[in-house]
Design goal:
Elements lengths: L14 E5 L21 E4 L7 H19 L13 E4 L3 E4 L39 H10 L3 E7 L3 H18 L4 E8 L4 H14 L6 E5 L4 H36 L19 H18 L3 H15 L13 H23 L3 H22 L6 H21 L33 H19 L29 H6 L10 H4 L9 H18 L3 H18 L2 H14 L1 H4 L3 H18 L2 H11 L28 E5 L7 E7 L3 E3 L3 E10 L8 E2 L2 E7 L5 E5 L10 E3 L3 E3 L11 E6 L2 E2 L4 E9 L4 E13 L4 E7 L7 E3 L7 E4 L4 E5 L5 E4 L7 E2 L4 E9 L5 E10 L6 E5 L2 E4 L1 E2 L4 E12 L4 E8 L6 E13 L2 E17 L2 E10 L11 H14 L8 E12 L5 E9 L3 E2 L2 E7 L8 E3 L4 E12 L8 E3 L2 E8 L9 E6 L3 E3 L5 E9 L8 E9 L5 E8 L4 E4 L3 E6 L3 E11 L4 E3 L2 E6 L4 E3 L1 E3 L3 E4 L2 E6 L16 E3 L2
Parallel strand pairs: 1-3, 1-5, 5-6, 6-7, 8-21, 10-24, 14-17, 15-19, 26-35, 47-56
Antiparallel strand pairs: 2-4, 9-11, 11-19, 12-18, 13-14, 13-20, 16-17, 20-21, 20-24, 22-23, 25-27, 27-33, 28-32, 28-34, 29-30, 29-33, 31-32, 34-35, 36-37, 37-42, 38-41, 38-44, 39-40, 40-42, 43-46, 44-45, 47-48, 47-59, 48-52, 49-51, 49-54, 50-52, 53-58, 54-55, 57-58
Helix pairs in contact: 3-4, 5-6, 6-7, 7-8, 8-9, 8-10, 10-11, 11-14, 14-15, 15-16, 15-18, 16-18, 18-19
Organism: Ophiocordyceps polyrhachis-furcata BCC 54312
InterPro entries: Gryzun, TPC11
Pfam family, one: Foie-gras_1
């Protein structure tokens, strides 16, 4: 849209002039037209400007608002305002309202004066028959504002009133209805400001909506918010101003009278505007004013009405096509159409916008064919290209949301307005790439038509042979070349001698095409339209070649060449053109490697043969200077070449140690008549158990044309290789290929290792004095199946998997025996495994051993061979291993022993022992043979146990907190002797352990012990009674339960400590296998018992029993009930004993015990059982009288409890032989 006059296509928004800002930020004045210098009105003020800091802030703010007003984006309903703002100092000039009569004209007293922008004024460029130009639009957009806003500092009210009144008087004299708005800035606040503002408003007769106040003390955010509110309030005022102008234009149209000019025309055609011409002007003005008001529906209707009048028979048909007014009318039609299309895009009617664009193109084409110079010339194609570019630029500046590159949308769906119609594809709005490419096609047609211009028309007028001499006094007749030049349409484009001059530089058509194609390509690429982007890039490269823009051409084509899109889609002609264009750019820019790569591809016979081209790769770099020898690496993925290859094995399977025949077939599809190519070497990559095969060139005249060439392969070994297998195979053969020749290379490949072998790729090496090239061909699953060649014909026994070979391992004859592999192993026990390696081969073998031990706990081990140890190394995933332990040479029938020591495991686990013996026979050192053996070593827990912690009565008395003398003496002794003896409460417990062996064999338990920390939670802990084991140990049979008890005593260090203590004892068992012997290793297994809480603050009731052993009272039992109060509260307990039929009772049936803090009391009952050898149940109930809670009675020795309560064991009757003497009788504690 650069070819259209400035301002004619701008987005019209209400125009505001802001006065009172710093002069250095003032925007430049628009250029004045002819006739505007005289009669200008200057708006001036003598009051000072705002301070620089505030002025700079306001200028920046208004610049942002103005930039948004110039934007072509859609005006949404949520947008409060949109303005064009111009900042000035204290002066601004307005154009004259009426033009002056030219001095050359005779004075006519009654002559009416008109606007200097009107075609009725002689000073106007439109006088006398012009329709409309951009100056009128610029008048309302840049010269005459809707609002004149003045910023003042609130200081002197009198001077301020006078200045405002002068400003309003000057505007009244100008005839313009510009609204005056006053914005005051001050430091005062409160009611005084309101009074001053009201005084200023009344003194200047301002509207209440035209005066505003801003406090200077406000922050930048608050000032910006206030200015937003002011502009929002002024927007309705500005809209009303333009509504009045539009109403005035419609009123003048309704008169139906064509106004008369100030001075009648006397020169030229003496034609003035008719009534339809004036109706067009009025409709055009009404449309522009509607756009100022952002009323797009009204603007569209007025524009369409003006457009129909313009292209009707009363306006355009009356203008001669040779007149400049013809092109002005076409320009107005373009401007109206562009504005109509833009309005449709703003309103979201994309399909209507495309229809409007096409409609204007069709109507202008009809008009130019009927009354113009026709459409078969470069001028029409130039306009077509411009019109397509206008559509693309409109879409870019309007920013249509649905067609952004991020949306990946190619075109928009039809609008709701046209949903019922059947639209054609080109009536949908496509993205801008479509329009730019359309413009490029029209530019290409423009160039083609421009090149058909005759030479006599391409001469400039001064250079034309028929041009008149400068000394001639009479006007020359029109020349023949001038009449021919008149036949060309020059609307918005140069004349023929400037479009395509005979001498000199004319229009750069190629660059114009390149610009459009690059813009289109960027849009296609952004939407993943890669084929269209590649096609456009190829077109662009042709134009770049005509401009010799080799670097840009190379940067454009090389990505296409590397992407190989044309090749994969089978576009041979496009690929060929791409290669030749790229080669030309590479030659000019000195990219020798790219030249070689392109020549390599162009050797293929599928391309057309170029006349007088050498088709010799050796001559590719002739005439190209290179600083170093190029090295080119290619592959069939990106650059499919004229050579192809296939690889096949003779059989599907074979065995290690044997040889397998294989064939490599080479075929050349080079251009017929091209120079034969001789490769330096070939390299076949084989994966799996086979090594690469390298074939070098060796000239041989006798078998150059033989269909099958047999070669011998030699094995090569690396010097520093750890194994003894070959690193590669090497052979020699004639590697010359003629166009259309197939060469088959056959060889026997020795097989050394087992596994699946596959031929993956073949690399051709071409080395000469000019360059080094390597080309890799990959063998794929999709390749054609090949057979085995036996002669010149096709291959036989075609197999699709011919490039695969299954190499079976050579059967190993070395045995690996682990005698103890099936043995049961236990935790905390070191594992010893004896490994026997026996050689059953017919000859001696060199043997290496690899041990890999896997387990969840990451076991460590060591290997002992002939007294030498080797430790395993940590690996991944909890594995340790050793590799390559040499065992030396083992003769046939001999064996070697290896001892493996594995560290004890702390928890049950499973070890996987992997033994790998790799060896080779002395007669065949290149063929490795492998024997593997795996053993699962299960490690389980030898013992499992369960535990009970039962109460016992502490025999020692509790310390009393009320014994002051005793506490003082204990403290003094502790201070004097540094004694740390426990002085707090004490409790005694019995840990009952029941353990069993889960081994598959008998284990010998040599010792039992219970351990725990000596000091836990401020309490001293000790084991007063340990489990006893008989001399010689206990033989623990599998799945047999054994019992062991241990007494634990816990006492607080301080009597003031009330915290509970958590015990964590452990059962330690010392054991060994029963067959280990006296000197065998002793293993120690520690079993965690768990955690138990003792010495709490809750009261505890203990029951203990004593048996009378004297003959006077046989069977009498003493039942003691002990209540402990470890808390710091005074507690009261009630005891009740119910009578029973099983025993006689002596004691208080109901009693009450009062316990002081940190104390315990005991009450005794005498029981005479009436039964023997059974448990009796005393009906004892202990109740806390405060909480009414029944306490559980804890049994001690000789007792137990169940759900119903306490049970006391009554031993069987004692015979006289077993009775004790009455004199020595004692109370025996219950067991």
């Amino acid at each position: 849209m650069d070819g259209y006059p400035a301002g004619c296509l701008d987005h019209n928004a209400p125009f505001i002039v802001v006065s009172g800002l710093s002069a250095q930020q003032q925007q430049p004045e628009p250029q004045s037209g002819v006739g505007l210098e005289d009669g200008r009105l200057l708006l001036r003020s003598s009051l000072p400007l705002l301070d620089d800091r505030l002025s700079a802030f306001l200028v920046k703010y208004f610049a942002q608002v103005d930039a948004h007003g110039m934007s072509w984006t859609t005006v949404s309903r949520q947008e409060p305002y949109r303005f064009r703002i111009k900042t000035v100092d204290r002066s601004f000039s307005l154009p004259p309202r009426r033009a002056q009569v030219p001095q050359s004209e005779e004075s006519i007293p009654s002559a009416p004066l008109h606007s200097p922008f009107s075609p009725l004024s002689p000073a106007s460029a439109l006088y006398p028959d012009g329709l409309m130009d951009s100056k009128w639009i610029r008048k309302h957009q840049d010269m005459v504002p809707a609002i004149y806003a003045c910023f003042y500092t609130l200081e002197d009210d009198v001077q301020l009133k006078a200045d405002i009144n002068d400003l309003k008087s000057t505007l009244a004299k100008s005839g313009y209805k510009v609204r005056v708005v006053i914005i005051l800035l001050g430091d005062a606040t409160g009611g005084s400001v309101q009074e001053r503002l009201e005084s200023i408003r009344k003194g200047t007769a301002l509207d209440p909506k035209s005066i505003f106040y801003i406090s200077k003390k406000s922050s930048a955010v608050e000032i910006k918010r206030t200015l937003d509110g002011i502009l929002t309030a002024l927007y309705s005022t500005a809209v009303e101003y333009y509504r009045d102008l539009g109403r005035h234009a419609r009123k003048k149209r309704s008169r139906g009278i064509a106004p008369q000019p100030t001075v009648p025309p006397t020169t030229g055609t003496s034609r003035i505007l008719s009534l339809p011409d004036w109706n067009f002007r009025y409709d055009f003005k009404a449309a522009v004013f509607a756009e100022f008001r952002q009323e797009m529906d009204a603007a569209s209707r007025s524009f369409e009405q003006a457009y129909e009048i313009l292209l009707g028979q009363d306006v355009l048909d009356t203008i001669p096509s040779w007149s400049p007014r013809w092109n002005e009318a076409r320009l107005l039609a373009d401007v109206i159409s562009i504005r109509c299309v833009r309005i449709q895009l703003w309103m979201g009617h994309t399909s209507l916008a495309v229809r409007r664009w096409q409609s204007h193109r069709d109507r202008i084409s009809d008009v130019v064919d009927r009354r113009g110079r026709g459409t078969n010339n470069y001028g029409w194609q130039a306009w077509e290209a411009r019109w397509a570019t206008v559509m693309a630029q409109l879409m870019e500046r309007v920013s249509i949301p649905g067609l952004t590159p991020a949306s990946m949308t190619l075109f928009l769906q039809p609008d709701k307005v046209v949903l019922g119609e059947r639209l054609k594809p080109w009536e949908l709005l496509h993205h801008t790439g479509y329009w730019y490419r359309l413009a490029a096609r029209h530019l290409d047609a423009r160039r083609a038509l421009a090149r058909t211009i005759p030479d006599d028309v391409r001469h400039a007028p001064v250079d034309s042979p028929s041009s008149p001499s400068s000394s001639s006094s009479s006007p020359p007749p029109p020349s023949k070349s001038a009449s021919k030049a008149y036949a060309y349409d020059t609307y918005l484009c140069p004349v023929p001698y400037r479009e395509y001059p005979l001498n000199g530089q004319g229009v750069n058509h190629a660059q114009l095409i390149i610009d459009c194609l690059l813009a289109a390509r960027s849009q296609f690429q952004a939407r993943d339209q890669h084929r269209l982007a590649a096609e456009v890039a190829l077109e662009c490269a042709r134009e770049m070649a005509s401009l010799a823009a080799w670097d840009d051409m190379l940067a454009l084509l090389q990505p296409l060449y590397d992407a190989a899109a044309f090749r994969s889609d089978g576009w041979v002609h496009a690929t060929e053109e791409l290669c030749w264009l790229l080669r030309q750019a590479a030659v000019e820019t000195g990219h020798a490697d790219l030249v070689v790569a392109v020549d390599w591809e162009l050797m293929n016979r599928k391309f057309s043969r170029r006349h007088r081209w050498h088709y010799d790769l050796i001559k590719s770099l002739d005439g190209i200077k290179t600083s170093s020898k190029p090295i080119v690496s290619l592959s069939d993925d990106a650059s499919p070449a004229f050579v192809s290859a296939s690889f096949v094995f003779l059989t599907k399977e074979s065995k290690a140690g044997e040889k397998c025949a294989a064939q490599l077939a080479l075929y050349s599809a080079a251009m017929p008549g091209s120079v034969p190519i001789t490769f330096s070497s070939l390299r076949v990559e084989l994966t799996g158990s086979l090594k690469p095969v390298v074939i070098e060139h060796a000239a041989s005249g006798k078998d150059a044309d033989a269909p099958i060439n047999t070669l011998l392969l030699d094995e090569e070994f690396a010097e520093a290789a750890a194994d003894e297998t070959p690193s590669q195979l090497r052979g020699r053969c004639d590697l010359t290929l003629k166009p259309g020749q197939r060469r088959v290379l056959e060889a026997a490949i020795p097989l050394r290792a087992a596994g699946l072998a596959e031929a993956t790729s073949l690399t051709f090496y071409l080395n000469n004095d000019s360059f080094d090239l390597d080309y890799t061909v990959k063998f794929r699953e999709t390749d054609d199946a090949v057979g085995w060649y036996t002669g010149p014909g096709a291959g036989r026994n075609v197999r699709p998997d011919g490039r695969y070979l299954r190499v079976q391992p050579r059967p190993p004859k070395i045995r690996i025996d682990v005698p103890d592999g099936a043995r049961q192993f236990y935790t905390d026990e070191g594992l010893k495994l004896l490994v026997e390696i026996s050689n059953d081969e017919d000859e001696a073998a060199s043997v290496k051993l690899a041990v890999n031990l896997m387990g969840s706990l990451g076991p460590l081990f060591r290997v002992v061979i002939d007294g030498q140890e080797r430790n395993g190394e940590d690996g991944d995933r909890g594995a340790t291993s050793t590799t390559g332990i040499p065992l030396g040479t083992i003769d046939s029938g001999a064996s070697r022993s290896v001892m493996i020591h594995i560290d004890p495991a702390e928890a049950p686990t499973t070890h996987e022992l992997q033994l790998r013996v790799s060896y080779h026979l002395e007669s065949d050192t290149a063929t490795p043979i492998v024997q593997e053996q795996t053993a699962q070593l299960s490690v389980v827990t030898p013992f499992e146990a369960n535990y009970d912690l039962v109460s016992r009565l502490q025999a020692d008395p509790w310390p009393s907190p009320f014994d002051a003398d005793g506490v003082l003496e204990a403290a003094q002794r502790e201070t004097a002797t540094s004694d740390t003896k426990a002085r707090g409460l004490a409790q005694r417990w019995c840990l009952e352990c029941r353990y069993a062996s889960f081994a598959v064999e008998d284990l010998l338990v040599l010792g039992l012990d219970v351990t725990m920390a000596p000091l836990v939670g401020g309490a001293r802990c000790r084991v007063s009674k340990r489990p006893q084991v008989a001399n010689g140990g206990i033989v623990a049979a599998p799945k047999t339960m054994y019992k062991a008890d241990a007494d634990l005593e816990v006492q607080k260090l301080s009597l003031d400590d009330r915290q509970a203590v958590t015990l964590a004892p452990q059962l330690v068992m010392r054991w060994q296998r029963s067959d280990a012997g006296a000197d065998g290793p002793v293993n120690t297994t520690t079993l965690p018992v768990g955690q138990y809480t003792v010495l709490g603050t809750e009261p505890r009731v203990l029951a203990s029993v004593l048996h009378e052993t004297r003959r006077t009272w046989p069977g009498l039992m003493w039942l003691d009930i002990t209540i402990e109060n470890p808390s710091s509260h005074f507690l009261t307990f009630g005891l009740s004993m119910e009578p029973s039929d099983e025993f006689a009772l002596s004691g208080a049936k109901q009693t009450t015990l009062h316990l002081l803090p940190l104390s315990r009391r005991t009450t005794r009952y005498r029981l005479l059982p009436l039964v023997r050898g059974v448990y009796v149940r005393p009906g004892l109930v202990v109740r806390d009288k405060y909480f009414q809670k029944v306490l559980r009675v804890m049994p001690t020795e000789g007792m137990k409890t169940d759900k119903e309560g306490l049970l006391v064991w009554v031993p069987p009757a004692v015979t006289e032989a077993k009775a004790t003497d009455s004199d020595s009788g004692k109370l025996q504690e219950g067991k």
